[in-house]
Amino acid sequence: MPTYHEAIAALPVGSAAVKASLRAMSVRRFGYCLTTAESLQTVTVVDPDAGTIPLVVVQNGLTFSYDSADTTTAHDGTTCLVSADGKRYKIDTFSYPSSVLDKDLTAPPGSPSVGDKYIVGTAATGAWSGHDGAVAFYASRGWIFATIPIGRPIYVEDETAFYHRNAGGTWTRGFGSLPFSANTIPRSAVIGQPFRHLVINQITNAPPGSPATADSYIVGSVPTGAWAGHAGKLAICEDGSTFTIYTPRTGELVFDIANNKDYRFNGTAWVSAFGAIIQIDQTFTASGSTSSGGSGSYTYSSGTAPTTSTAYFKDDGSTIDDFVAIGGTGATLKFTYDATITQNGLATTTIGLFRDSEANAIAWSPNFGDAVAEHRNYDFWVTAPDAAAHDYHIRGVGAVAASVNALTRRSLSVEEVA
């Protein structure tokens, strides 16, 4: 039901003023104005007769409203005024700042503009004296101050950084302790991405079905599925189920867990971070068995490869099994065969490098010797056919397999080079 303003009841038409109503209206409906020098802490605001309480207090042009539910907030002279009888008034026109111009000044600037805000420095002087750590606002009536709550962030413009007041009341750069769970920050979230990744290997061509978060690979040379078209790129599981593909940058480093080595991206390929050699494998036999077989003779030819069907001896000790070229198809491999060989007279034996069960040698070199023991060295440069595992071995092929009398101190090594 509509009612009249209290002034109607206090000053009824055609009747004398009602003193009690006029007094109640004056206390409750008019703002209680304080001068700059006055403090509400010295004023009892509750009417001792009717118990009426002013709804608004005004000081320095700022309006504070009565908060009947608050009985604990301390008087700070800026955001909360507390009367002598414990009534609390909260500021209406004040808002905590989101930024300040500076936080290190200890004296007010000479020509501030209305609205300028600062965090007052330590041992402040002049109009800021006694307000260390507070935020100083410049208003048309001069400087006013506010104590910012613990934990509230403020952007300091001259430092382009955020600060917050810690539990001890000290302004501290940043937002405080912000711990992140393990494996939660993706590579793409870091400026410059200065990473040295740990990759499981460099030969996997299809995304593993059940990866763990942070599992990383250099995609193999013949990728399939979701990795198709991304050979040599980095595949990183960032969510525990799928892989994110990243194009490596020149100079980027990885540690290959499978090979226990560091690799560097040179702009086109991953190469050993320790030099041109990417990986090495070797076998050595001081003495041991050889096997023979085949029939017919072979005369060295640079254009025709020796075969497994021609009469041969096989150095059973000089084999490298399950060798995988990290660089995949087209990777450069250097095989070196060392042996002390004793031949029958001036018989000529061709030393051939064979792969798996292939019939033709993939590289070969002639050996001219006589009946004395001579140490020989052969280098074979070949390209890897793919990134699969292969077995390599040495055979000697000649006019007759029995042209070799003795074979000792044999070693076969392979280097994959960049």
Low-confidence stretches: none
Cα distance, first to last residue?
Answer: 93 Å
C-alpha Rg (nearest Å): 44 Å
Number of strands: 28
Task: Give average pLDDT, whole number.
Answer: 84
Helix content: under 10%
| Order of helical and strand elements | HHEEEEEEEEEEEEEEEEEEEEEEEEEEEE
Task: List the strand order in the largest sheet.
Answer: 1-2-3-5-4
**Helices and strands: which structural class?**
mainly beta
The global form is rod-shaped
- Biggest sheet: strands, sense, closure? 5 strands, mixed
- Proportion of strand residues: 35-45%
Count helical runs: 2
What does this protein structure show overall?
The structure is a single chain. This protein has about 425 residues and is mainly β. Helix content is about 5%, strand content about 40%. The protein is built from two helices and 28 strands. It has a five-stranded mixed β-sheet with strand order 1-2-3-5-4. It has a five-stranded antiparallel β-sheet with strand order 21-22-27-24-25, with no helix packed on it. The protein is rod-shaped, with a radius of gyration of 44 Å. The protein starts with 5 loop residues before the first helix and ends with a strand.
Descriptors:
5-stranded mixed β-sheet; mainly beta; 4% helix; 418 residues; 5-stranded antiparallel β-sheet; rod-shaped
Question: Summary?
Answer:
The protein is mainly beta.
Would you spell out the secondary-structure blueprint of this structure?
Layout: H1 6-10, H2 19-29, E1 32-34, E2 56-59, E3 62-66, E4 80-82, E5 88-91, E6 99-100, E7 117-119, E8 135-139, E9 142-146, E10 153-156, E11 161-165, E12 171-173, E13 196-199, E14 216-218, E15 234-237, E16 243-246, E17 253-256, E18 261-265, E19 270-272, E20 277-285, E21 290-293, E22 312-324, E23 332-343, E24 348-355, E25 363-368, E26 374-383, E27 389-398, E28 404-417
Parallel strand pairs: 1-2, 6-10, 13-17
Antiparallel strand pairs: 2-3, 3-5, 4-5, 7-8, 8-9, 10-11, 11-12, 14-15, 15-16, 17-18, 18-19, 20-28, 21-22, 22-27, 23-26, 23-28, 24-25, 24-27
